[in-house]
């Protein structure tokens, strides 16, 4: 409103000064809204529920084989009666899914940026269904391998569905949407093994129902494989009918068909009104791509933000799946060898509790925690929770050796389960960070595919590395070589516990800290003639505005520029006697 400073005018007149009236209109700008009071946009529940239903397909098809695949490997005769080879072939079967997924998921995601999300999802569901039917009908090891590779290779839906969720939400409800994702995975991971364990060999298990079926007698594992395969077909039909396309590429598709129809009408002279039809040539359909919204080549996708987010996601998956691989091994290993020596009947409920608690915690608290603290802080705290989770392994074993399976031991086991839920909280946060890191909307699928490719590699090698370190720590104290057979049981268990789980915990946390925080830790390594490399802005480039400095320092090893991960690998190799003697060097 107009405002006249009468008092200032009178003062200026007394001083003999000329005063000019100026009307100044003040426009009062309302304060920015409080983030805590911003109303959350309602989720499109019908479309979102379809996505959750579709996400059950992957854990069902990937987890259903775990209970019976050891027996299946024995029955097909690939081991030649050597029981020690069973674990080797079982490990191959379990890793093939993630290996082939890593090889193809990026290409599926980039394809979804070009032709839309829905066609790729339909193709992936069809591939999952066919691969599971083939797995149940396979009678040779190579048939199983081909089916498993088909399962992972045609499963491009993981990254594509994350893109769909990011496209159907906004900044107010994306955290709520991602909080429901672990429920689908936990549900499928729980139902899948139950189906595989209870429906294998149905002729002998349920003779009244399937005793006369010659087909199921010849293919005893077809029934547990056919159920997730049939579920995937149902999901395919639901997707075809009800799921809406979320990618902006649909406008270009409609424009193409509109132009084709107009050209056809001109050729046949059936109608002269197609050219002027406003329905077929709306600005929305024929508009050119907005600046910066074109599909970027791969080299332009490898930005600082994308690499940081994808690296964090890969390390998180590596830590998480390694912990999940070690946990049942720890629970079943005898107390004298560093575990708890629990029976399978007790291990199952303990692992099931995690799935239930994880789902409840994600739905109830993740959205509010994320809205209050933000994606980066939630992810950082989740990574930090891996430190006590790994550290509890030797502590639990210590009390099991001194007190037996007391209430304190079980209390620590439950504490470990609750703490590990924090790791799962990090998934929702990193999904959001990856979506925000995409250079533009048209590259969202490719960015999700790139991160999922790195995660698939980690999930393929994580259990192998964790199990190998477990065996290595056992051998280091003479478990199989006899070198430590005379050691006291308590000391031997302590060496296994603090050696095996301590090494895993320290290495994994070191990796996670390096990528999550980017702090310049001072740590001492024994490395082979390797010199710190002084970085300069001209070599590395100016950091992006508002981007966290998460890139780890670089070093040189025999003239090759490497990072601290390679240095840690050198340290482990030198400790195991795999490299020559190293010089001591402090690196900051």
Describe this structure in words.
This protein is mainly alpha-helical. The chain has three domains: 45-260, Growth Hormone, Chain: A (Up-down Bundle), CATH 1.20.1250.20; 303-517, Growth Hormone, Chain: A (Up-down Bundle), CATH 1.20.1250; 518-587, no CATH class. It contains 26 helices and five strands. The protein has helices at residues 6-14, 45-55, 57-63, 69-75, 86-115, 117-137, 141-153, 157-168, 174-179, 181-199, 202-205, 207-210, 214-218, 222-242, 249-268, 283-286, 298-301, 304-332, 344-373, 375-384, 386-403, 407-437, 444-476, 489-516, 537-540, 564-575, and strands at 523-527, 530-532, 555-557, 560-562, 583-587. It has a three-stranded antiparallel sheet with strand order 2-3-4. A two-stranded antiparallel sheet has the order 1-5. Strand 3 (555-557) and strand 4 form a beta hairpin. Helix 20 runs antiparallel to helix 22. The chain starts with 5 loop residues before the first helix and ends with a strand. Residues 22-29, 251-292, 477-500 and 516-588 have low confidence and may be disordered. It is found in: Membrane. Its main location: membrane. The chain crosses the membrane at residues 120-138, 221-243, 306-326, 346-366, 378-397, 409-434, 501-519.
In short:
The chain has 588 residues and is mainly α. The chain is built from 26 helices and 5 strands.
Q: What descriptive keywords fit this protein?
A:
mainly alpha; Growth Hormone, Chain: A; 3 domains; 3-stranded antiparallel β-sheet; 67% helix; Major facilitator superfamily (MFS) profile domain-containing protein; transmembrane; transmembrane transporter activity; MFS_trans_sf
């Amino acid at each position: 409103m107009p405002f006249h400073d009468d008092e200032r005018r009178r003062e200026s007149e007394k001083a003999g000064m000329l005063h000019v009236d100026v009307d100044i209109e003040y426009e009062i700008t309302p304060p920015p809204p409080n983030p805590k009071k911003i109303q959350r946009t309602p989720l499109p529940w019908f479309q979102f529920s379809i996505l959750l239903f579709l996400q059950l397909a992957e854990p069902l098809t990937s987890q259903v084989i775990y209970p019976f695949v050891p027996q299946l490997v024995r029955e097909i005769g690939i081991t030649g009666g050597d029981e020690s080879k069973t674990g080797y072939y079982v490990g191959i079967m379990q890793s093939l899914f993630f290996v082939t997924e890593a090889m193809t998921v990026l290409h599926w995601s980039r394809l979804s940026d070009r032709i839309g999300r829905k066609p790729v999802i339909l193709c992936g569901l069809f591939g999952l269904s066919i691969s599971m039917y083939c797995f149940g009908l396979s009678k040779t090891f190579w048939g199983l391998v081909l089916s498993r590779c088909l399962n992972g290779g045609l499963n491009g839906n993981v990254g594509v569905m994350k893109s769909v969720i990011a496209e159907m939400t906004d900044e107010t409800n994306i955290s709520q949407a991602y909080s429901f994702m672990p429920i689908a995975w936990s549900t499928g991971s729980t139902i899948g093994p139950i189906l595989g364990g209870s429906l294998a060999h149905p002729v002998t298990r349920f003779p009244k129902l399937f005793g006369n079926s010659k087909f199921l007698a010849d293919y005893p594992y077809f029934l547990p494989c056919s159920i997730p395969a049939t579920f995937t077909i149902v999901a395919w039909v639901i997707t075809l009918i009800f799921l809406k396309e979320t990618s902006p590429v649909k406008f270009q598709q409609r424009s193409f068909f509109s132009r084709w129809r107009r050209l056809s009408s001109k050729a046949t002279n059936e109608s002269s009104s197609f050219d002027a039809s406003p329905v077929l040539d709306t600005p929305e359909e024929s508009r050119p791509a907005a600046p910066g919204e074109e599909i970027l080549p791969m080299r332009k996708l490898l930005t600082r933000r994308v690499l940081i987010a994808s690296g964090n996601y890969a390390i998180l998956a590596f830590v998480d799946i390694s912990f999940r691989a070690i946990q049942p091994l720890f629970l079943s290993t005898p107390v004298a060898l560093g575990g708890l020596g629990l029976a399978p009947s007790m291990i199952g409920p303990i692992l099931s509790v995690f799935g239930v608690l994880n789902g409840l915690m994600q739905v109830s608290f993740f959205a509010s925690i994320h809205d209050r603290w933000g994606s980066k802080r939630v992810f950082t705290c989740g990574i930090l929770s891996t430190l006590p989770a790994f550290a509890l392994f030797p502590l639990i074993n210590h009390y099991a050796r001194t007190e037996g399976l007391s209430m304190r031991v079980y209390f620590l086991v439950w504490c470990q389960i609750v703490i590990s839920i924090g790791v799962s909280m990090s998934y929702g946060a990193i999904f959001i960070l990856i979506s925000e890191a995409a250079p533009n909307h048209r590259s969202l699928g490719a960015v999700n595919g790139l991160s999922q490719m790195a995660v698939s590699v980690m999930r393929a090698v994580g259990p192998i590395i964790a199990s190998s370190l477990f065996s290595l720590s056992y051998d280091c104290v003479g478990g199989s070589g006899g070198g430590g057979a005379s050691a006291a049981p308590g000391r031997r268990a302590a060496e296994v516990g603090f050696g095996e789980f301590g090494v895993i915990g320290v290495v994994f946390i070191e990796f996670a800290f390096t990528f999550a925080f980017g702090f310049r830790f001072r740590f001492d390594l024994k490395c082979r003639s390797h010199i710190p490399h002084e970085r300069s802005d001209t070599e590395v480039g100016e950091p992006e505005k508002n981007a966290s400095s998460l890139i780890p320092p670089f070093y040189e090893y025999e003239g090759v520029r490497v990072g601290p991960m390679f240095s840690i690998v050198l340290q482990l190799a030198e400790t195991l006697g795999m490299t020559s003697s190293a010089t001591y060097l402090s690196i900051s």
